[in-house]
Design a protein that fits this description.
Layout: H1 4-7, E1 23-24, H2 27-39, H3 42-49, E2 85-88, E3 94-97, H4 109-114, E4 121-124, E5 133-136, E6 152-154, E7 156-158, E8 162-164, H5 170-178, H6 184-194, E9 196-198, E10 201-203, H7 210-228, E11 246-249, E12 258-261, E13 266-269, E14 272-275, H8 279-282, E15 285-286, E16 289-290, H9 291-300, H10 318-336, H11 338-343
Antiparallel strand pairs: 1-3, 2-3, 4-5, 4-6, 7-8, 9-10, 11-14, 12-13, 13-14, 15-16
Helix pairs in contact: 6-7
Length: 386
């Protein structure tokens, strides 16, 4: 079977933050961390910053594409915190990030250049149980909960939904087989519905039967819409009436544990209660890790006192509960589609011989496009040369 790496040739390795305090489930904590860092001086600021070989407060760094942040050395910074932006931290966990290149070890600027309201990112999840890929409308960091990250593959190579990141000639070849030209989003939908993880990477069967293709694309489009949670003009995910999760008992200020009662379909967060929560949502795993447990742990795990990570909400914010209800809905809806995934019959597959001249893709398709649609500020305020 072809590899996703061949069908969508351009991909980037995961982002590396280098320091955990630049990322948070709530935006307000990031601004408080920024202020605390600026108040510190000398050795104390270096300690809070978390110096690495890639970044220190004295590093000279260009601005992130599309972000209007400072490019002077951070050691001289005295301004306000840049407005946090939404990112995907691992599968299904949307958090907030300070979008300042001076604070990030490896930010993958080529991905920031093509991130806009038309973009869609496909993220390989590495070898393990659960979904082989997830999709996101916001920039993903590409991290895997099992520590085996794959690559981040944008659907488009340029801003504005221009130049699909698809092997040249592939859509034309598939169109000749299926009797109508598929779109780049059709191919992504097919990949989401049928991709499988392997030790060698993410593999994708291509059906010879047009009806199998149409069925898989239809299923994949539903899976993509659920994961995008209303982005790109789609509908927000909702379970049918009577099956929607509600807060039955308020989440306490500091919930200390998460648990699940399968008989009552109740999710507990300390003394808080949410129901009904389908067993399939609780058991939902990616790369062998239960999604709901990981989501909760990232918001409640103890932080080392005196660090910037220790600056966090004093009590459980109401927006976290709303996000949890939506996450439960997303996982439940995706779980409902698993039987359809298993029952999807690929049938006879298109052979590699039939794709001669298309696969493998040319080397140029594996490199990012030259995006020169805006000026980018380099270190110390100088124009960056691209």
């Amino acid at each position: 079977m072809p590899m996703l790496d061949e069908l969508m040739p351009w991909g980037a390795a995961p982002l590396r933050w280098g320091r955990g305090w630049v990322l948070s489930p709530d935006a307000a904590s990031l601004k408080r961390r920024w202020d605390a860092l600026l108040k510190a001086e000398g050795v104390a600021r270096d300690a809070l910053f978390g110096c690495t070989r890639a970044r220190t407060p004295r590093s000279a760094v260009a601005a992130l594409p599309g972000q209007s942040t400072g490019t002077g050395r951070f050691v001289r910074e005295d301004g306000r915190c840049p407005e946090p932006v939404r990112v995907l931290h691992g599968p299904f966990d949307e958090q907030w990030l300070i979008p300042d290149h001076r604070l990030i070890d490896t930010a993958r600027p080529e991905l920031w250049r093509v991130a806009d309201e038309r973009q869609l990112f496909v993220v390989e999840q590495g070898y393990g149980a659960g979904l082989a890929t997830v999709v996101s409308a916001v920039l993903p960091d590409g991290r895997s909960p099992a520590g085996r990250p794959g690559r981040i593959r944008p659907l488009y190579r340029r801003p504005g939904g221009v130049e699909p990141n698809i092997a040249p000639g592939l859509l034309t070849a598939l169109g000749a087989r299926y009797g109508q030209d598929p779109s780049a989003e059709d191919l992504v939908a097919w990949c989401v519905a049928t991709a499988e993880s392997s030790a060698a990477g993410c593999v994708v069967p291509l059906p010879a039967d047009p009806q199998a293709w149409r069925s898989g694309v239809e299923l994949g489009r539903r899976m993509v819409e659920i994961q995008l949670r209303g982005a790109r003009g789609g509908a927000r995910p909702r379970l049918p009436g009577g099956r929607r999760p509600y807060v039955r008992s308020a989440v306490p200020a500091r919930p200390d544990a998460i648990g699940y009662d399968a008989d009552e379909e109740v999710l507990s967060l300390g003394d808080g209660r949410i129901s009904p929560v389908p067993r399939e949502a609780w058991d939902f795993e990616v790369a062998g890790v239960r999604v709901l447990e990981l989501w909760f742990a990232r918001r409640t795990a103890a932080a080392e006192p005196g660090t910037l990570e220790a600056i966090r909400p004093a009590a459980w914010p109401q927006e976290w509960t709303s996000e949890l209800l939506e996450l439960i809905t997303v996982l439940a809806l995706l779980a409902e589609l698993r039987d359809q995934q298993r029952e999807l019959k690929v049938g006879p597959e298109i052979t590699r011989d039939e794709l001669t001249g298309v696969l493998p893709p040319p080397a140029a398709a594996r490199r990012p496009a030259s995006v020169l649609d805006r000026q980018e500020e380099g270190p110390e305020g100088q124009l960056a040369l691209l």
